[in-house]
Specification:
The protein is 48% helix and 4% strand. It contains 2 helices and 2 strands, in the order ββαα. The termini are far apart.
C-alpha cells in the first residue's frame, strides 16, 4: 500500500494520502494496510540480511525462490524455538540457537 504523492489526485475520494507529518488520510482499510507496511519492510530487510540475499551466487529464479523459502522456514522455526524455550525476546535471533 503506497500512497499517491501529495500533489496528485487532489479532491478524489477513495485513495490514500500521507501528509508531511506522515499522518495517513483515506479509507480506513487503506490506512490499516499502510500501517502494516512497516512490519513487512522490516521483515524483508531482516530476510535479506540474515539469508544472504544481498550477495548470493545463485542463478535462476527457481534456485533463488527455493533459497528464500528455506530461509523463511528457518526464521519460523527459530521463532517457534524461542517461544518453546520461554525466550520470546530471542525470536528474531538465528545466531542465538546456532550453538
Amino acid at each position: 500500500m503506497i500512497p499517491y504523492p501529495r500533489n496528485q489526485k487532489r479532491g478524489v475520494k477513495g485513495i490514500l494520502r500521507v501528509d508531511r507529518l506522515f499522518k495517513s488520510h483515506g479509507p480506513r482499510e487503506h490506512r490499516r494496510a499502510y500501517r502494516k507496511r512497516v512490519a513487512v519492510e522490516r521483515f524483508f530487510s531482516q530476510l535479506k540480511n540474515l539469508a544472504g540475499l544481498t550477495q548470493h551466487n545463485l542463478r535462476g529464479l527457481a534456485k533463488i525462490t527455493f533459497h528464500v523459502q528455506l530461509c523463511i522456514i528457518t526464521m519460523l522455526f527459530t521463532a517457534e524455538a524461542a517461544l518453546n524455550t520461554n525466550r520470546p525476546s530471542k525470536a528474531r535471533s538465528i545466531r542465538y540457537f546456532a550453538n
